[in-house]
Design a protein that fits this description.
This protein has 292 residues and is of the alpha+beta class. It contains six helices and twelve strands. It has helices at 2-20, 35-68, 85-113, 154-160, 259-268, 274-281; strands at 121-128, 131-139, 142-150, 170-171, 174-175, 185-188, 193-199, 204-208, 213-217, 223-227, 233-239, 251-257. The termini are far apart.
Amino acid sequence: MAKSLAAIAASAAAPAALAANPQPWQLNMTPGVTETAQAAYDMHMIMLWICVVIGVLVFGAMGVAMFRFRKSKGAVPDTALVHSTKVEVVWTVIPVLILVVMAWPATRYLIAAADVRDAEMTVKVTGYQWKWRYEILDYKGIEQPVNFVSSLDLDSNRARQGLKDPRDVQVDGVNTYLLDVDRELVLPTDTKIRFVITADDVIHAWWVPALGWKQDAIPGFINEAWTNIREPGVYRGQCAELCGKDHGFMPIVVRAVPRGEFERELVKMGGVLPDTAAIAQAPTAPAPASGR
């Protein structure tokens, strides 16, 4: 029964995860599954439609001018507009107003994307040639000992060495060649998660498109980001900074699950739940004295 429920839950989450991950020949951005991803998508669409309107007006006016007022029809240039102060003011003010309209929401989204306060969980990401180390530093204010390395999965590794056909590297019928790992990063949904990202050797970049941001991993520096995943699913990414000969072989896999399931996974990884920690830290009552 439990397996059936898990299968139903996985199938229900699959469309959301599939839609959030980039697809072959995809032309537009995906909305993603986080607040920051949705904000980036909304900003992209605002910019796109502003550019479409400007393009239609400019190229429409150009087309009308070329075909309706061409020299063969006896059209004569109007030199009065060339040196018109009013016209110059208008075509200077209008672009400035357009830029202000575009900059206002973009600035608001950027400020929100950098605000890592009030996070319930902190994950440290360290890039190596050519793998990732994940450390869950705390969860709900409780320090956690979870620390593991995530590397390219065995099937993809065999395929890149010519020992297996890359087309046969699949998960649930989807080709995951160079997109799967031996150990996923499991995160809870509906939880604000703070990431601290660095590297141990050269510059890397931690990038999962569905989360809506990319952050450089630089040796000696700590960069921050945050996410709040709304939809359970498996979200894939890659190192986005050329970091050496095996740069293309260090994928990222984030598996988002409901909070209750995450807490069970956390315990399996050796972590401590807040309730368990509170019980462990509670003072024990003194043993009653034995009378003689």
